[in-house]
Design brief:
This protein is of the alpha/beta class. It folds into two domains: 138 residues, Aspartate Aminotransferase, domain 1 (Alpha-Beta Complex); 267 residues, Type I PLP-dependent aspartate aminotransferase-like (Major domain) (Aspartate Aminotransferase, domain 2), CATH 3.40.640. It is built from 16 helices and 15 strands. The strands form four sheets. Strands 2-8-7-6-5-3-4 form a seven-stranded mixed beta sheet, with helices on both faces. Strands 9-12-15-14 form a four-stranded antiparallel beta sheet, with helices on one face. Helix 4 packs parallel to helix 12 and helix 7 runs parallel beside helix 8. The mean pLDDT is 96. It binds pyridoxal-5'-phosphate (PLP). The site of pyridoxal-5'-phosphate has 13 residues, from helix 5.
């Protein structure tokens, strides 16, 4: 059979990797495997496995970072709770683009949202000994489950596909009513399915967070990227929707990585509701020697993990947020390119006989964004990962995301620039021909 990559090379490298089931491989394991196959075969892959930004970092960020370094910040330890200018701009940013009031004190820079989530998960697991379990609304970002495994903390999860709209209430209550849940975690827009929760659904989550006193961890890694609505109107609606409109029990994770194409510098902000930031949880004292949520987050956990985020990256994010706040930098327009790519790529895949797994967002077609999900009749997720490797295309299985749709894959559009589209199309046509 004629395939773009020699089948024997792919099979040998898979065998050497020791990965028994490609459906269970992590993103970084697939990255490593594909790097090897690429080197040996000489064929450049269509890389859709990792969510790296495929756009240039904004000049505003780079220039602010250079200026900060030239002023000598590299020799100083940053304050653990962050530099004032970033705290101020982050507070304005949530006001301008979400319509939410959070004081600068409660906006804490972290080393990427990865660190923010790790620290918040750890904190939430220690608020109350009866509440020892977190709840993921899946599908989700697999590395966050890895963070739980590394910490040895418990989590439960469910695939939201069949529980959209009002059905979400009963499903959530079936977990929350057991009394062991400390937090609810989801990303919105969702990695990997690109489902976008509606205001009504966020209201349900918020009301239940109040009823059962749990913390909602809203991961906004793809802030403003529901491209069906134009969300760049500083200070005016429509805003990025949020659970923060319906409960005070929330933490927002705002990452610099995707919305600002700044993943390499590992910078994000955890914006904690003022009420939670200042709330006392008596059980925290036994473990951390202090009882306030925000104080423990900053001066026990972030201090222990990294003692703050790098000075220069904080100045970069502050400058980008400041320009966005003042109406000079439409950061959402910059990333709309991802939606255009998804639109073209989904058609290529469906023309080749693939199906979109998470195809609907309530009664609308799923939006075009950073990721989409695909399956091929008769193949499991692991089999499809392998099969596509023969065609020089790499992606990860949905099995690692908590999705029940284990036949599916997550495809990330970020690295498929317009010059690569014809090659992807050609490879998919060959796939179609060989599978007919
Ligand atoms: C849902 C989600 N959360 C968090 C992250 C990590 O963000 P950061 O690069 O800020 O650590 C990602 C990155 O892909 C993500 O998709």
């Amino acid at each position: 059979m004629n395939t773009p990559v020699n089948i024997n090379i792919v099979n040998e490298e898979i065998a050497k990797s020791g990965l028994k089931d490609l459906g269970k491989a992590t993103i970084r394991e697939i990255v490593g495997l594909v790097n090897k196959i690429q080197n040996i075969s000489g064929v450049k892959y269509m890389r859709m496995e990792m969510g790296v930004p495929g756009l240039k970092p904004p000049k505003i960020g780079i220039e602010a970072e250079i200026e900060a370094l030239e002023s000598g910040v590299a020799s100083d330890y940053p304050m653990v709770d962050g530099v004032k200018v970033l705290k101020d701009e982050a507070s304005k940013f949530v006001k301008n683009f979400m319509g939410i009031d959070i004081s600068p004190d409660s906006c804490i820079p972290t080393v990427g949202s990865m660190q923010g989530s790790y620290a918040i998960f750890l904190l939430c697991a220690n608020l109350n000994p009866q509440k020892d379990t977190a709840l993921f609304i899946d599908p989700g970002f697999p590395v966050q489950k890895q963070q739980f495994r590394v910490m040895g903390h418990k989590f439960e999860s469910f695939d939201v596909y069949n529980y959209r709209g009002e059905a979400l209430r009963e499903k959530l209550e079936s977990f929350l009513s057991k009394g062991n849940i400390n937090s609810i975690i989801y990303s919105n827009p969702n990695n990997p399915s690109w489902i976008c929760f509606t205001d009504d659904e966020l209201k349900i989550i918020g009301e239940l967070a109040n009823k059962y006193d749990v913390i909602v961890i809203e991961d906004l890694a793809y802030f403003g990227m529901d491209f069906r609505k134009d969300l760049y109107h500083p200070g005016k609606p429509p805003y990025q929707v949020s659970v923060a409109n319906y409960t005070d029990n929330y933490v927002l994770l705002i990452s610099g990585s995707k919305a600002f194409s700044y993943a390499g510098q590992r910078i994000a902000v955890a914006a904690i509701s003022d009420k939670i930031f200042n709330r006392e949880y008596p059980y925290l004292t036994d473990r951390f020697g202090c009882d306030k949520f925000g104080y423990t987050f900053v001066l026990r956990i972030i201090y222990s993990l990294s003692s703050g985020a790098s000075h220069s990256a904080q100045y970069a994010l502050a400058a980008m947020m400041k320009a966005a706040n003042s109406g000079e930098f439409n950061f959402i327009e910059e990333v709309k390119e991802y939606g255009n790519r998804a639109h073209i790529m989904k058609k290529m895949f469906t023309d080749a006989g693939f199906q979109i797994v998470y195809d609907k967002d309530l009664d609308e077609d799923i939006a075009d964004g950073f990721y989409f999900t695909i399956s091929y009749p008769g193949l499991s997720g692991g089999e499809l990962v392998k099969e596509l490797l023969y065609y020089g295309i790499s992606a990860i299985s949905l099995g690692t995301s908590g999705s029940l749709r284990t036949e599916g894959l997550r495809a990330c559009v970020s690295q498929i620039t317009s010059d690569k589209m014809p090659v992807l199309d050609e490879r998919l046509k060959m796939f179609k021909l060989n599978h007919n």
